[in-house]
């Protein structure tokens, strides 16, 4: 790998941006493609598939043998609300390979005793997410049922392009949420990205089952996320 490619990869890693290192196995030489760059033809298709899978691959493009090495930021789940669903999700997420953090300003809920070995912050989402912003490799899960706590991070997640945004609540609750977000100027298309009711419809009844449904929907959104690299 040449020094220019290494610098580009290091910068992408620092900025939590995905990248693919394309190496020509026949002629030598390499180039870095950042997620979002337009790549023409079949190479663009191969690169898009690599970004979705996160797996390295050897491909043939117009008779050239290329090796694609993928560098993806670790996907993370940011949960708003230290509730029973969050406790179950905190145990499940690492098994599926996701980092998880919980934010809840309600100190009666956000206690180390209830969330041992979990990244837990008992503060307002506005303050926490300013210090550690959401990004395209973040999933936002809002489960407090309290608009004063949930609304800001939901809107922020939509603005930041999080690959998943889900919110707990009935259809009536969500209709009120939609109205509040519209008042903030969010478009109908942006609001439509919210998964509400949250989680895949598996008939979940307990907090543990709801957590399974949420994680399954997050994985689905992550693996099917839009990758724009072809023209």
Question: Could you explain how this protein is built, in words?
Answer:
- The protein is an alpha/beta fold and 231 residues long.
- It has 8 helices and 10 strands.
- The strands form 2 sheets. A 6-stranded parallel sheet has the order 7-6-5-8-9-10, sandwiched between helices.
- The model has no long low-confidence stretch (mean pLDDT 93).
- InterPro entries: MoCofactor_Util/Proc, XdhC_Rossmann_dom.
- This is XdhC/CoxF family protein.
CATH class of the largest domain: Alpha Beta
Query: Which range does the strand content fall in?
Result: 15-25%
Instruction: Bin the helical content.
Output: 25-40%
Tell me what the CATH architecture of the largest domain is.
3-Layer(aba) Sandwich
Let me know the number of strands.
10
**Mean of residue pLDDT?**
93
Per CATH, what is the topology of the largest domain? Rossmann fold
Category by helix and strand content: alpha/beta
The tally of domains stands at 2
CATH homologous superfamily of the largest domain, by name? NAD(P)-binding Rossmann-like Domain
The CA-CA distance between the termini, in Å, is 27 Å
SSE succession: HEEHEEEHEEHEHEHHEH
Overall outline: elongated
Number of helices: 8
Write the layout of secondary structure elements.
Elements: H1 3-14, E1 19-24, E2 30-34, H2 41-53, E3 57-61, E4 64-71, E5 76-80, H3 84-92, E6 99-103, E7 119-121, H4 125-131, E8 138-142, H5 147-160, E9 164-167, H6 171-183, H7 188-191, E10 194-195, H8 207-223
């Amino acid at each position: 790998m040449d020094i220019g490619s290494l610098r580009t990869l290091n910068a992408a890693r620092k900025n939590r941006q995905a990248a693919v290192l394309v190496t020509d196995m026949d002629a030598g030489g390499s180039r870095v493609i950042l997620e979002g760059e337009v790549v023409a033809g079949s190479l663009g298709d191969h690169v898009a598939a690599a970004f979705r899978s996160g797996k390295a691959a050897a491909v043939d493009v117009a008779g050239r043998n290329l090796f694609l090495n993928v560098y993806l930021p670790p996907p993370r789940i940011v949960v708003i609300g230290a509730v029973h669903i969050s406790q179950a999700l905190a145990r499940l997420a690492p098994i599926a390979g996701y980092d998880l953090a919980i934010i809840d300003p309600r100190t009666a809920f956000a206690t180390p005793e209830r969330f041992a070995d979990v990244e837990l912050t008992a503060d307002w989402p506005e303050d926490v997410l300013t210090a550690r912003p959401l990004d395209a490799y973040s999933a936002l899960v809002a489960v407090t049922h309290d608009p004063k706590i949930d609304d800001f991070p939901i809107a922020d997640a939509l603005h930041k392009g999080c690959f998943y945004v889900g919110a707990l609540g009935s259809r009536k609750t969500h209709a009120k949420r939609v109205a509040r977000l519209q008042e903030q100027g969010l478009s109908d298309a942006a609001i439509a990205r919210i998964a509400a009711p949250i989680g895949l419809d598996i008939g979940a009844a307990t907090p543990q089952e709801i957590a399974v449904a949420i994680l399954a929907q997050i994985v689905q959104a992550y693996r099917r996320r839009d990758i724009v690299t072809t023209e």
